[in-house]
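Take a specimen:
=====
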Amino acid sequence: MEKIDLPLFYKLGAMLRPLTEKEVKNSTRVDNWLAALPVEASVGYLLKLFPTLTVCRSTGEELIRAIEEAGNWMRETPAKEWEKQDYSVDLKFQQIVNKAKEFETVLSAELQTLASYHVTQKGIYSTTDLIERAENTLPASVLPKISQRVKEEIRQSGRCLAFDSGTACAFHIMRAVEAVMHEYYIAMCKPTPRPSKRLENWGAYIAELQKSPKSEVKEVVAMLQQIKDRHRNLIMHPEVVLTPDEAFTLFEIAQGAIIAMADKLPTPKTKKQRKDKKV
């Protein structure tokens, strides 16, 4: 998936249209060439950036060659002869205008066939943030306490939410909750020896956490039990498909559980802190 640079198309259109309306005569050669130079660069960049543009590609390349040929003539000809009447030279500059018109028409037609979509905003979340950095929906104080793997799961969940893939969104956010749950279980229950693998399922974690006498743990357990019974177990069945609204609700609930658990996790020590401790 690539983000489309919409201003690129706007700027290209703003440069291309005046070029198609240029009058070709010996006295306007310099003006026409200067107007064509940014078009040459922009068309080349466009064709390189979007290899999927195939219909207009040959016309775009012909436009670039026409501008290059006129440029070569300008560089090889003394300035005092730039306005000298010469029909063959006029044809070079007329070719620029003709190819610009042709490219504008073909490009416009091809753009209408491209599969481009507008991603609707979800709640108060910025669409860009949801697609690229959904983990930042968590408080800044929580982010240092969760692993990179958890952040990536939240990021994947945010992308799925943005693109209305409700079930996939739920799948990834549940993986994030479970990964944090494992660390929370270790921090609260302090099992000995420390388990190298995860427990069998959510039920096993909840059963162990229920043994804790701490009131804040019981509140988290109630939250996890509700998610397990009302959401997590259901999405494991292939016949269940979550709507975008249902996925949005679960995304919010899961964030609440992650925040509640991460609040009690220790902040990982930096390399410098670990080094100082050894010394």
Q: What stands out?
A: The chain has a mean pLDDT of 90. Residues 87-111 form the longest helix (25 residues). The radius of gyration is 30 Å. Residues 6-111 form one domain.
